[in-house]
Amino acid sequence: MTLARNVFGVLDRSAEAAYGDRPAFGFEGETRTFVELRDGATGFAGGLHDLGVRPGDAVAVMMGNRLEWLEVFFGLSALGAVCVPVNVLLTGPEIAHVCRDSGARYLVMDEVAGRSVAALDVDFDTVVLLGEVAAPPSAHTAAYVDVRQGSLPEGHVGPALDDVAVLYYSSGTTGLPKAAAHTHNGVLWNAMGQIQGLGLTKDVRYAVIPSFSWAAGLHNLVLGLVWVGGYSEVRRTGGASMESIVEGLERDRITHVMLVPSLLRDLATRPDLMERLSASALEWIVTGAEPVPRSVIEGVCRGVPGVDVCQGYGLSEFPTITTVLMADEVFAHEGSAGRALPHTDLAIRDADGAIQRCGTGELLVRSLATMVGYHQRPEQTAEAFRDGWLHTGDLVELDAEGFITIVGRTKDMIISGGLNVYPKEIEDVINRLPGVVEAAVVGVPHERFGETAVAVVVTDDADFEAATVEAACAAQLASYKRPRVTIVRSERLPRNANAKLLKRELRPWAEQQVRDSGVSDSAKKSAGTPG
Asked: How far apart are the first and last CA of the chain?
């Protein structure tokens, strides 16, 4: 395997390889070969240079999924500028924070960004416009089609491996979002680990469902496939129903796809869609963002025989796929997120602060693919990288074989009467009950025990009762682990753009429900949904 000098070097060498004239990406009937994408990226890089962008400059990118997104990403890499993806779901003030915090003096945008940036109060040197879209007030603008016609100066070398390639901003769970800084070296190790660990080849045809503005969009399989000559079919941002996804998988002869758990749950309830996938080219589904109940995995495996269903775990701080539970391991390791890919080392920090190779504690990751730190936040960087390990903030059980089972977030752990209660252990019991669509357990204040567990259960069964949860937990859990209140609702649980559960929003709502209902210490009760 040839090592690349930087991220653009992967595309450049693939364009020069035997598969250079093969399609690398497709989007709504249009394709780009490796050569065409390389040439478009270098043209865009040259046009940015003509506008004054220099190596190390931050360039904000807010666009929906499309082929031009890839030209921009590789073009910035060729130039040595820093790509700052802006989440397509952000509002004006949130976008302003990302642009100011990153120091982005340039913005590339299309119609997806139009509404959000219409009144954006940020001074840019230039805004590059793709399509019919209005720029922020008083901004100097340039048309994408014109910028793409440039050429880099003769003798341009490009960035080094240790130069920063991209800044990914968090969802801002505590305070303002912060950016994970990734070098070209880290991005390439992330891709190489997937090539080896997932067995990627030039014959893989991957459907890109996540937005390119999220780390999973570009860094789950996509760059690895660029490296080995595979193909990625890009889906337009937003509006992803399981039915429309299946139509695309059939039409584009897709072999690999990533489906977040909510989509996988939908698929498990549609025998007709699973039957169609059984007759398609699909070979492999990976899911992640949160543990998936065994009932869902079993349902899809039965409904789509011959398709491997794998579970994964990853970070925006990288590796984006840190661990994978392969299809032949699913039933022997129920609830596990698998073992580390070849480029990653795992450990845990236990309750006493000791670093251990197995046990329960905060998951620690060590890999050449991790971020180098949080952009301009040295204190938070030092906190994240204590003792040479990246601290993930996720509570896991790490067994002697290297399999991890996600228990929850360190901040989600409930300490009730001095005893540790792990929400996932309770959630696993509840999720196995008939009629449960999804469930979450959060800790709320309690006068006697400090905290107590409250279960929020989403069901589509009008006859489902909280007593069902009480009985199941009483039969399978120690008394101190059982939720003291169960709230039954039909409204889905709050999630962020990456489909991750937002317990920070659910917790205060549950606390208010308990307070308003006046349920006693040991009572179980159904409650309404937020108004």
From this structure: 57
**Listed residue (21, 392, 344, 374) closest to 192, CA to CA:** 344
Closest CA to 56 of 217, 183, 155: 183
CB 461 within 8 A of CB 491: no
| Amino acid 233: pLDDT | 98
Q: How many Å apart are CA 370 and CA 518, to the nearest integer?
A: 47
Cα distance between residue 211 and residue 66, in whole Å: 10
Report pLDDT digits (tens) over 242-282. 999 999 999 999 999 999 887 888 899 999 999 999 999 99
**Token reading at 263:** 């989509």
Reading the block at residue 143, the tokens are 């048309």
Give the tokens for residue 120. 């954006």
Question: What's the whole-model pTM score?
Answer: 0.83
Q: Which helix (H) or strand (E) holds 39?
A: helix 34-51
Domain annotation for the chain: domains and CATH numbers: 30-183 (3.40.50.980), 337-409 (2.30.38.10), 414-517 (3.30.300.30)
Question: The dihedral of CA 356, 178, 316, 5: what is its sign?
Answer: negative
Residue 75, SS3 per DSSP? helix
State the residue for tokens 């509002």: 91
What residue type is 186 in one-letter code?
A: G
The pLDDT value given to residue 351? 86
- Kindly state the tokens that stand for 178: 């912060």
Distance of CA 461 to the CA centre of its chain: 30
In Å, how far are 249, 306, 358 from 300, measured between CA atoms?
16, 11, 31
DSSP label at residue 495? B
Residue 229 main-chain phi, psi, to 5 deg: 90, 20
Q: Which residues contact 123 (CB under 8 A, 6 or more apart)?
A: none
The Cα 47–Cα 41 span in angstroms is 10
Alpha helix stretches (DSSP H) within 110-183: 111-117, 144-147
The number of residues in the chain equals 531
Give mean pLDDT, residues 206-213.
95
The mean pLDDT value for 323-339 works out to 87
Amino acid letter, 223: L
